Structures are given as structure tokens and as C-alpha cells.
Amino acid sequence: MLAYIIRRGFIGVIMLLVMSLVTFILFFASPIDPARYACGKNCSPALQEQTSKALGYNKPAVQQWTDFLRGIVAGREYPDDPSIREAAPQLVTSCPAPCMGYSVVNSKLVADEIKDAFPITLSLTLAAFIMWILGGVGFGVLAAVKKGTIIDRGIVGVSLVLFAFPAFFTGLFLLKFLAIKWQVVPIPTYTSIADGGVLTWLQGLLLPGITLAVLFMAAYVRMTRAFVLESMHEDYVRTAMSKGLKPRRVLFKHSLRAALTPLVTMAGLDFAGLLGGAIITETVFNYNGLGKLFYDANKTFDLPTIIGIVVLVGFFVITANIIVDLLYAVIDPRVRVG
Fold first, then answer.
1. Which spans in 146-255 are helix H?
2. What are phi and psi of 59, to 5 degrees?
3. Helix pair 110-145, 193-231: axis angle to 10 deg
């Protein structure tokens, strides 16, 4: 197991390096000089050239990538050009490790931007994840057990309808009617546990969490139902039932355990993807998480912020894949890790 973890971790690091290199090539090897956006609207050619040197945009894309990696490990200083730092030491900004770049648009280190936004995204992701896992798997199992009944058709039908609604529609509907018109719940605003306590923190996550959970829950209901029904026809399940085991024990110990294997893959990747930000939901509820940060960075062509978030999401997805692979051996005894 230890050898497998080391091997998967090494492969994950290689994948992350390749992904970051491709990202840099796509953004910085283009004919458009990113310094033109960084220095503002009224940017003269001389100021654009100076901005390009200050941020290191005048270097080849591969060299910028190596500087980026070096900054993550050992930190770096801005302006990137040593001659500019010597001429104007008062303008030097130290970027300690892990340095993910400097955003000229926001006059802030990218790592600090992510540090401010990530707790909001993490809280929203955790709230939605718990809701859609409990609801999706629970209703999916119920639909499989009641196959062919009105309960089964009702659960599947409702899930299909909910799945058809986009996140912005669900979010705006909940915000307008539940929070503003009917005032069933307060208008959601994010408050950290340190500032407002656990209850206030949960209240702020309720509506945006439901918005995300409804979208994912619909898919998990259908997938859980299909996987449980498929596992019920396996030989080992029929053998267990022929031995006289109670149907509930067969369902939870054998059928559901086998069905969880593909569901863990979905859950791991969905959770990791959401850690990169739920752009639509965070924009609808005006939550300043990673999704909204990424959206704003795209509008202003803030490349350092975009690249920092892309690399972070890549790290989450690769890590989730490794964790999912390790969980396979725990959930399904038929899986053996070599």
C-alpha cells in the first residue's frame, strides 16, 4: 500500500507539472502581450514594456513557468526584473512561498487572494456535498428498493425535473422567494464561524448550498438507483439472499457497498471540482469565493490570478483521484491495490 501511495503521488506531481506547463504555454505563448492588460487602458508602449519587464512577461513561456515553480518552493520578489528592483527599492513586494504570482489588477498577491476566497468556497462545497450525498444516495437507494412503484417513478421524475433547472435559475428562485419575498430565511451572507458562530455560518450557507446540492443530487439519485439495481443481480448478492440473510443486511452490506465504488469516483471529482469555485452560484449570491474570483479575473484578464486558480484546481482534482483510488480497496473487497 505504501509503495502504491508513493507511486501515485509521484505520478500526481508529474501530472500537475505538465498541467501547469500547458497552462503557461496557452496563456503566455499567445501573440497578445498580457502586459497590455496589466498596465491599464491608457497604456503607452513604453509603459507596456516596463510592465512586461516588471512582471516577467518578456521572458519565454517556459522560463516564466520555471520562475513560477521556483516561487512556489522558495518565494520570489516583484518587480521581476532586478534592475527595476534596484532602481526603485520602495516598489519591491516580497512574495513568500508558496508564491503563486502577483495580481496587478488587484494590487495583491495571488496567494493572499486565494487565502481570502478559499474558506468561503470550502464552506459552500462542504455544505452542498453533505446535502447531495445524503439526499442523492438515500433517495437513489429508496428508488431502487421500490423499483416500478409510484415512489420510484416519483423520485426519478422529480430528479429529472430538478436536473433540468440550471444553477442560476434555482439560486435566483430561492433568493427571490424564500429570502426576499416570503422571508422564510435571512438573505444569505457569508459569515465565518470565528465572526458569527456556527449557527450564523450555517444560515449563510443554506440557500447557496441547496442550489448546488439540488443540481448534483438529481444526478446522484439516478446513478445510485442504476448502480444498486445492477449490483442486486450479482451472483454474490443472490448467494447471500439464498442463505437467508435479511434483505436490509444484503442491501447495505453487499449491494450498496459494491454500488458505492463508482459513486466514490463521482463524489471525489465533483467535490474537487467545486473546491475550485462554483462560479454561477457564488455570483448569484455575491459570495466572494474562488469561483467569483475566477470570474472577475477573466473579465479583467488577470492572468496571474487565473493561473493560480487553475493550478490549485488541478491539485485538488489530482489529489482527489489518488484518494479515490485508495478508497476503492476499503469499499470494495474485490479491489486490491498492488
1. 150-164, 167-173, 193-231, 235-242, 247-250
2. -85, 160
3. 40
132 contacts: CB under 8 Å, gap ≥ 6: 212, 213, 214, 216, 217, 220
Nearest Cα to Cα of residue 30 among 60, 65, 67, 70: 60
Q: Are residues 275 and 197 in the same domain?
A: yes
Q: Are residues 84 and 139 in the same domain?
A: no
Pair 80, 131 in one domain: no
Residues 129 and 13 occupy one common structural domain: no
State residue 329 phi and psi, 5-degree precision: -70, -25
Which stretch of DSSP H or E encloses residue 48? helix 45-55
Q: Residue 229 gets which letter from DSSP?
A: H
- As given in the structure block, the three cell numbers for residue 338 are 498492488
Q: Would residue 148 be called left, alpha or beta, if left means φ above 0 and alpha means ψ between -120 and 50 degrees? A: left
- For residue 177, what are the contacts with CB-CB under 8 A and spacing of at least 6? none
How many distinct structural domains can be found in the chain? 2
Q: Do residue 117 and residue 232 come from a single domain?
A: yes
Q: Which residue has the cell 479491489?
A: 335
**Last residue of some domain: 48, 64, 99?**
99
3-state secondary structure of 102: strand
pLDDT digits 0-9 by tens, 34-69? 888 788 777 888 888 888 888 888 888 899 999 999
What is the distance between the alpha carbons of residues 123 and 275, in angstroms, rounded to a whole number? 9
Q: What whole-number percentage of the chain has pLDDT above 90?
A: 52
Burial label for 298, CB within 10 Å (0-12, 13-18, 19+), is middle
pLDDT tens-digit map of 163-176: 889 999 999 999 99
CA nearest neighbour of 34 among 102, 87, 86, 84: 102
CATH code where residue 222 lies:
1.10.3720.10
- Its pTM stands at 0.89
Q: Is 103 helix (H, G, I), strand (E, B) or coil?
A: strand
**Residue-number span of the structural domain to which 316 is assigned:** 113-331
